[in-house]
């Protein structure tokens, strides 16, 4: 479909002349700008600038995937100042090796770069320097920051106060009606009453606490609505709900607590009362020095080893602790209740008070590899300069052997080796899918060289917008979306659904809607994708239903049937041994033991199976067959042991010919054949 044209040819000719002059002026101004600024037209812009942007045509979907590729930074530092700043950023994340490399490169270019950097930081001008680096990483799901220096220390003023009290009073006296920026684009939120807006904010807060604070800076009205006690009460009931009690009982408990300690002020309670955060992970970065080996006596290398301690809390009272050398970017998304790796501790946590009335956290955990050992951690929630309640300080760490509980012999660990835990938020633990868009504008939108004739903009769900200027070529885009529903525990019948909306506008005289069409070109072989399109007046809705492909589903079910076949064969063998008195030897008894080791291999051969056990495929085949084969193996070994007697071994020895006799017999037969051959 074509874009609407003016009623008269004269207006069209005037528009073309103005457009040519605008293109020429942009080309002259573009030559004088920095080359780095030319990349900014592909950046994501905010929704409040969408009125000045135009929209473009999206035609094809060429590739879909639910993998999570590691996004590399688009900006590479080149100057000494930028290299030094990047090194400081890497050091704050605990990547000391990469930080040292950047420090070396910076000092090679400028030996005084550290002095210049500190002078620059004192002036408070680091925002411009790190703007491009933050632009490349602002969509990352996880960022590990290690507090350095004074950031370890809690702020001096620990009492909550109202720094914006006068400003809020000024807002309340003003007109808070939402006025549209453009008359022909009304603000639909202005039609909603405040009660509905507060309810929407409450549910948005339950999904993401960061979203709640972002809403407060949208406008004056939203800033005042976020102070509603209803929202803060909901936050407190969610954050301080004790595990194992009902929601109504928790509400009564929190209501009495806020009246006794905070005079009914829910926001003050949420700010001052210690709490645990469930929307991320607590990380303790530890280092130790290990001497290395060298062939030369005059050179002794030293290795600086970095390892991490992870703590993740769940609202049901479960806590998972994991110790590994893997970096946080790899571990945080796999840190769940079902993690089964070395140095993984699973337990529970409870809040306690000592004799002085101080509140502390007690964790009772158990290592999966040491079933007889119990580990007890005592931690205190503290704050840092970066925020409140984001630090866990060690108070005591002991272990007790369950076989010696009556003796109460505790093994006390040295806390000097234990670094505090710092909280790092994780935006999402859910699966994502990446769509690769290839654009094919219609003929009336581009010239003979494939360059756009108008300023255009593509928008995805009003959150991500990609503008293109006139004269640009529409390059492909990769956009990442979250799945709304789906759980890997349903493997191989797991299905994931995601929904987003896409629109396109062109700036001819005013914002003109461009009609859209889609075509699915390619997808992954191990997954099946079913897109569903819904056409609206100004945009197009696209729902993605992702499931396992028929090949993956069939192969997984085949593996389950293969496990049952192994169990059936071993069951027949066990029946013959137990009831038909079939003789069994040592190598026959090892069949069942071998099958016990073969089943985990068969399970891992299923494509895309979750690393942790507990999915539907395990219930269909793995769990039952492990139990059946184990019982059959025990029965066969029991018959073999029960039927053994020394007399059988002696009788067996008399009937079997000796090695010497067999060799003599073979020699005689061979000699006779030799004689007959010559005869």
UniProtKB/TrEMBL annotation:
This protein's UniProt keywords? Membrane, Transmembrane, Transmembrane helix, Ubl conjugation pathway
Keyword Cytoplasm listed? The answer is no
Q: Where is this region: Disordered?
A: 1-52
Q: Where are the transmembrane segments?
A: 553-577, 584-602, 622-642
Offer one example of a GO biological process linked to this entry: SCF-dependent proteasomal ubiquitin-dependent protein catabolic process
Gene Ontology CC terms, in alphabetical order: cytoplasm; SCF ubiquitin ligase complex
Q: Where is the composition biased (Basic and acidic residues)?
A: 13-25
Q: Where's the F-box domain? A: 186-235
Query: In what ranges is there compositional bias, type Polar residues?
Result: 1-10, 26-36
Family annotation (Gene3D superfamilies)? 1.20.1280.50
Q: Record's PANTHER family?
A: F-BOX ONLY PROTEIN 48, F-BOX ONLY PROTEIN 48-RELATED
Task: Please identify the protein, giving its name as recorded.
Answer: F-box domain-containing protein
Q: Look up and give the organism this protein is from.
A: Hesseltinella vesiculosa
């Amino acid at each position: 479909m074509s874009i609407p044209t003016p009623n008269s040819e004269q207006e069209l000719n005037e528009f073309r002349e103005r457009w040519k002059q605008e293109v020429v002026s942009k080309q002259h101004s573009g030559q004088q700008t920095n080359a780095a600024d030319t990349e900014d037209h592909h950046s994501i812009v905010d929704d409040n600038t969408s009125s000045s942007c135009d929209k473009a045509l999206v035609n094809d979907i060429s590739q879909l995937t639910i993998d999570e590729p590691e996004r590399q930074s688009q900006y590479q530092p080149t100057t000494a100042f930028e290299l030094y700043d990047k090194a400081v950023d890497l050091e704050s994340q605990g990547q000391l090796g990469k930080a040292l490399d950047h420090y070396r490169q910076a000092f090679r270019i400028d030996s005084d770069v550290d002095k210049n950097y500190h002078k620059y930081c004192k002036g408070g001008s680091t925002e411009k320097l790190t703007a491009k680096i933050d632009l490349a990483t602002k969509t990352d799901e996880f960022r590990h920051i290690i507090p350095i220096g004074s950031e370890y220390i809690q702020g001096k003023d620990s009492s909550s106060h109202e720094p914006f009290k006068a400003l809020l009073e000024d807002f309340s006296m003003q007109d808070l009606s939402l006025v549209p920026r453009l008359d022909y684009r009304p603000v639909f939120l202005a039609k909603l009453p405040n009660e509905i807006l507060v309810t929407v904010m409450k549910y948005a807060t339950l999904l993401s606490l960061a979203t709640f604070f972002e809403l407060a800076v949208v406008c004056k009205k939203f800033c005042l609505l976020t102070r509603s006690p209803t929202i803060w009460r909901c936050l407190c009931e969610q954050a301080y709900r004790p595990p194992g009690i009902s929601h109504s009982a928790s509400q009564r408990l929190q209501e009495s607590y806020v009246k006794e300690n905070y005079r009914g002020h829910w926001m003050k309670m949420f700010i001052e009362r210690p709490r645990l955060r469930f929307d991320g992970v607590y990380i303790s970065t530890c280092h130790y020095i290990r001497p290395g080996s060298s062939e030369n006596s005059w050179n002794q290398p030293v290795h600086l080893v970095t390892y991490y301690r992870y703590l993740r809390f769940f609202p049901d009272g479960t806590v998972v602790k994991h110790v590994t050398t893997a970096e946080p970017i790899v571990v945080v998304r796999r840190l769940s209740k079902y993690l089964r790796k070395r140095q993984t501790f699973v337990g529970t946590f409870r809040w306690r008070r000592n004799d002085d009335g101080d509140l502390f956290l007690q964790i009772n955990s158990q290592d999966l590899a040491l079933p007889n050992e119990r580990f007890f951690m005592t931690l205190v929630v503290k704050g840092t300069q970066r925020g409140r309640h984001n630090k866990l300080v060690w108070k005591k760490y002991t272990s007790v052997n369950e076989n010696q509980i009556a003796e109460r012999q505790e093994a006390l660990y040295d806390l000097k080796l234990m670094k505090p835990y710092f909280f790092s938020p994780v935006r999402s633990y859910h699966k994502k899918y990446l769509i690769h868009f290839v654009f094919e504008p219609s003929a009336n939108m581009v010239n003979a060289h494939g360059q756009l004739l108008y300023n255009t903009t593509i928008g995805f769900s009003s959150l991500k917008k990609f503008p293109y200027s006139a004269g640009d070529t529409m390059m492909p885009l990769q956009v990442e979306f979250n799945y709304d529903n789906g759980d890997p525990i349903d493997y191989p019948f797991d299905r994931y659904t995601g929904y987003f909306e896409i629109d396109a506008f062109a700036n001819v005289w005013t914002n003109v809607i461009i009609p859209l069409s889609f075509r699915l070109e390619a997808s992954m072989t191990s997954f099946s994708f079913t897109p569903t399109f819904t056409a609206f007046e100004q945009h197009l809705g696209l729902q993605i239903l992702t499931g396992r492909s028929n090949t993956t589903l069939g192969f997984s079910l085949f593996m389950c049937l293969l496990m049952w076949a192994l169990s059936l064969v071993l069951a027949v063998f066990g029946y013959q041994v137990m009831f038909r008195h079939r003789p069994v030897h040592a190598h026959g008894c090892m069949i069942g033991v071998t099958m016990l080791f073969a089943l985990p291999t068969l399970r891992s051969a299923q494509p895309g199976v979750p690393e942790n056990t507990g999915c539907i495929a395990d219930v269909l085949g793995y769990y039952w067959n492990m139990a059946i084969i184990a019982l059959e193996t025990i029965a066969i070994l029991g018959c073999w042991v029960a039927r053994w007697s020394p007399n059988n071994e002696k009788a067996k020895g008399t009937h079997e010919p000796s090695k010497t006799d067999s060799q003599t017999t073979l020699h005689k037969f061979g000699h006779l054949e030799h004689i007959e051959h010559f005869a």
